[in-house]
Amino acid sequence: MSAIIASLSFFTDIRFILLCGLGSVAGLFVGSIPGLSVSMATALLVSITYTWSTHDALATVMGVYVVGVFSGALSAILLNIPGAPSSVVTTLDGYPLAKRGEAFKALKYATVYSFVGSVFGLVALALLAQPITSIALKFQPMDYFLLALFGLATVGGLTTDSFSKGLISAVFGLFFAMIGMDAVLGTPRLTFGITNLNAGINTVPALVGLFGFAEVLSVIFDGHMDAEVNGIVKQVVKMKDILKHFWHSLYYSLLGTVVGALPGAGGPVAAFLAYSQAKTIVKNPSRPFGEGAVEGIVASESSNNACIGGALIPMLTLAVPGDAVTAIILSVFYVHGLQPGPMFLATSADSFHAILAGGFIGCVFLLLLGLLVAPHLSKIIAVPKTILMPIVTLLCVIGAYACNNRLFDVGLMFFFGILGFLMRSRGYSVAPMTLGIVLGNMMDSNFRRAVSLAVSADNVVVALFGRPITMVLLVCTLVSIITNIPAVKRAWANRKSGKAK
After folding, report:
1. Exposed/middle/buried for 370, CB within 10 Å: 0-12, 13-18, 19+?
2. What is the DSSP letter of 34?
3. C-alpha count within 13 angstroms, C-beta hemisphere, residue 10
4. Would the pTM count as exceeding 0.90?
């Protein structure tokens, strides 16, 4: 609590607030453009803030970070193109709401619960940095592998009526994640002699293709190019209706904070896990999940924004980035002579307070920009499809090219767009594939590391699965897989119906 009180002194610094506001506006627009991520915006700031004071740099970076994570939901809701991997889950219910003409409602829910999640994560950073870090330190390679496997096992039953189709989609994602240079052997893997694949499949072209260009192809194939997207009508969305989900959002935020504190897991894992929990604990959603349930937006946005505070915990206390953005922020620290690590909170308390203050001020700007500016951005989907689809295609090309300045990535985007279109037309959700692409390398490296360490042990099985954390994760994964098997689900449904009679 003392850290939060100390950070309040920055709320009287007009320069600090203005720089944080400048970063917030930049994060809003950069993060909402498909293909231009908050990671890219933060990376650009490293060179721009080189000559700035430490506090000025931290204020701007935190503004970009907090609002940039939220702004990925804008394109997810309005265009069905997640502005960031953590916004993939938001598309599941946000875009169906927009198609129903309720984009204003979806944006308001996303804004409020992004704010709730961000504040929760930052408070957790201030109060629970050391305890959560001590838990994260106990995770071994097999634990990280099982955590990712649990995410993939649950997502198969979340995004499609067929669990098997969900798993097939996830396996395809893992296959694409394996493409590139083998991290252990240092040799090309599954590249088929294509030199440009040695660096692997970049997430940005894959995301833009699967969610953006695939949507364009779907519209063209349906033959409704002359139709207009439902116009955005400003609706009366009562705050008391929004806040009905507040207590659930705190649970999702807790999930996001804990997952964010695990290096390499990040927003996508948190969002999928929270969405899984929402489908379990919400008995009467406003609409079926995947068809415009505001409960899905609440789960996704609360959890992935709570990852902000969670991801900063290992970065500040262990110098281990929690996600891609904190990896870039780590370089900002080094540029300004700061040394994150176990002694950071003791030796650089003032900078820690500046980070907290920048985060909380960024939350205020998130709320203001989300409620006042985002609805005006939503007018883009009122454009006739004959105009909108070429614009979306152009954005897809620009977003794919901008990540590495390679035409090859544009080709990848088209490939994944066609693949996404074919999958959708056959009832396969692309969300599990996306999670597989995001988590594949982490699963591969941690599994091989775990096996390498266990081989020399007397009992390999005990070495791999003998720890309490590992056993809990293993049980959760097995339960998730078994309960989603069609025969088991039918038996459970029959048993419930029998009890009801």
Report:
1. buried
2. T
3. 27
4. no
CA distance 352 to 361: 14
Q: What 8-state DSSP symbol labels residue 405?
A: T
Distance (Å, whole) CA 302 – CA 114 = 5
> What's the rounded Cα separation, in Å, for the pair 55 and 50?
12
Which amino acid, 87? S
CA-to-CA distance for 224 and 99, rounded, in angstroms? 14
- Do 358 and 62 contact (CB within 8 A), yes or no? yes
Instruction: Using DSSP, state whether 406 is helix, strand or coil.
Output: coil
Residue spans of the chain under pLDDT 70: 1-3, 33-47, 50, 83-85, 129-130, 132-137, 151, 154-162, 223-236, 263-266, 318-324, 327-328, 331, 341-342, 377-385, 388, 403, 493, 496-501
User: Distance (Å, rounded) from C-alpha 73 to C-alpha 253?
Assistant: 16
DSSP 209: I
The pLDDT assigned to 228 comes to 44
Residue of 110, 177, 194 whose CA lies nearest to 375: 110
CA distances from 88 to 10, 70, 91, 220, 489 (A): 34, 12, 6, 23, 26
What tens digit of pLDDT does each residue of 99-136 get?
Answer: 887 888 888 898 999 999 999 999 988 887 667 656 66
CA–CA gap between residue 454 and residue 337 (Å, rounded): 39
Residues 454 and 450: their CA atoms lie apart, in Å, by: 6
Do residues 77 and 381 touch, judged by C-beta distance below 8 A?
Answer: no
Q: Which run of H or of E encompasses 181?
A: strand 180-181
Q: What are phi and psi of 384, to 5 degrees?
A: -55, 145
Buried b / exposed e along 43-55 (16+ C-beta atoms within 10 A): bebbeebeebebb
Alpha-carbon span 362 to 344, nearest angstrom? 23
Three-state DSSP class for residue 237: coil
- Give Rg (Cα) of the chain: 22
Grouping H, G, I as helix, E, B as strand and the rest as coil, residue 180 is: strand
Can you read off the two tokens belonging to residue 182? 């083998």
List phi, psi (to 5°) of 183.
-70, -25
* Bridge partner residues of 181 (DSSP): 188
Q: What is the Cα–Cα distance from 258 to 251, expressed in whole angstroms?
A: 11
> Which one, of 295, 321, 294, lies nearest residue 308 by Cα?
321
Count CB neighbours of 288 within 10 A: 12
How many Å from the N-terminal Cα to the C-terminal Cα in the chain? 53
H/E stretch holding 189? strand 188-189
Q: What is the model's pLDDT at position 381?
A: 45
Q: Which of 489, 491, 482, 434 is nearest to 268 (CA)?
A: 434
The full length of the chain comes to: 501
pLDDT at 364: 93
